[in-house]
């Protein structure tokens, strides 16, 4: 195989991050977890297999299902964006049903894996992320840590809904500060209260901005 062919078969972590629309830290984590295939050069630099990147990119087709806000719409007209990450498909359907009845009529994106959530989060830009912790592949612990370490999602409102108790969570390294942990069965009333507070803060910011000379 020629050197040119090899170069086309692999790319740097930065190039992989640009192709996937995620942070370099996310690419590095996926390499460590085996979600992306990579090797190191003699100088210690990672080279990521393009085929494994293309495989992950196929998952981005789900993003076409996410509706975009109309161009030029008034800020207050934008719906609350909620992303739910849960590997139990029956529970995902319950989330869809219950959240569709909320007074603020949120736009809900349900995702069955942490990997898919990281692929979609840049396009969805959720105001509220609700996630489980125990999931196959990348778990909720790793996903939340990636989101908190990335500047673009460092302030995303994240709520964990899990069957794990505080001792079990601490045993797995705990969670970043500022993340509320709720138990199962899912406390939808508490989630609605959290969502309402986010909407209220957003409305207050819009009003303050509108009143600025």
Description of the structure:
Strand 2 and strand 3 form a beta hairpin. By secondary structure, the protein is of the alpha/beta class. It has helices spanning 3-9, 13-20, 24-33, 50-57, 89-99, 114-124, 140-149, 166-171, 188-210, and strands at residues 10-11, 38-40, 46-49, 81-85, 107-111, 128-131, 157-162, 180-183.
Structural class of the secondary elements? Answer: alpha/beta
Number of DSSP strand runs? 8
Strand content: 15-25%
User: What low-confidence regions span 5 or more consecutive residues with pLDDT below 50?
Assistant: 1-7, 61-77, 206-210
**Main beta-sheet strand count, sense and barrel state:** 5 strands, parallel
Q: Which geometry do the CA atoms define?
A: globular
Bin the helical content. 40-55%
Q: Strand sequence of the main sheet, in spatial order?
A: 5-4-6-7-8
Specify Rg, calculated over alpha carbons.
19 Å
Distance between the termini: 64 Å
Could you report the average pLDDT, rounded to the nearest whole number? 81
Q: Sketch the topology as an H/E string, one letter per element.
A: HEHHEEHEHEHEHEHEH
Q: Counting H and I runs of at least 4 residues, what is the number of helices?
A: 9
What is the strand and helix layout of this fold?
Layout: H1 3-9, E1 10-11, H2 13-20, H3 24-33, E2 38-40, E3 46-49, H4 50-57, E4 81-85, H5 89-99, E5 107-111, H6 114-124, E6 128-131, H7 140-149, E7 157-162, H8 166-171, E8 180-183, H9 188-210
Parallel strand pairs: 4-5, 4-6, 6-7, 7-8
Antiparallel strand pairs: 1-3, 2-3
Keywords:
about 210 residues; five-stranded parallel beta sheet; three-stranded antiparallel beta sheet; 9 helices; 8 strands; globular; disordered N terminus
């Amino acid at each position: 195989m020629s050197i040119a062919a090899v170069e086309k078969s692999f790319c740097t972590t930065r190039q992989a991050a640009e192709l996937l629309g995620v942070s370099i830290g996310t690419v590095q984590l996926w390499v460590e977890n085996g979600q992306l295939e990579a090797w190191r050069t003699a100088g210690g630099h990672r080279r990521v297999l393009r085929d494994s990147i293309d495989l992950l990119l196929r998952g981005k087709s789900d993003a076409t299902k996410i509706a975009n806000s109309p161009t030029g719409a008034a800020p207050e007209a934008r719906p609350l964006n909620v992303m739910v990450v849960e590997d139990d498909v029956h529970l995902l359907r319950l989330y869809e049903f219950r959240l569709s009845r909320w007074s603020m009529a949120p736009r809900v994106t349900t995702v069955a894996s942490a990997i898919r959530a990281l692929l979609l989060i840049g396009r969805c830009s959720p105001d509220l992320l609700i996630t489980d912790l125990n999931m196959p592949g990348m778990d909720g612990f790793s996903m939340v840590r990636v989101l908190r370490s990335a500047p673009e999602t460092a302030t995303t409102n994240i709520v964990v809904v899990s069957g794990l108790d505080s001792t079990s969570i601490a045993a797995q390294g705990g969670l970043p500060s500022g993340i509320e942990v709720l138990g199962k069965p899912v406390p939808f009333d508490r989630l609605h209260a959290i969502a309402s507070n986010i909407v209220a803060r957003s409305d207050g910011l819009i009003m303050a901005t509108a009143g600025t000379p």
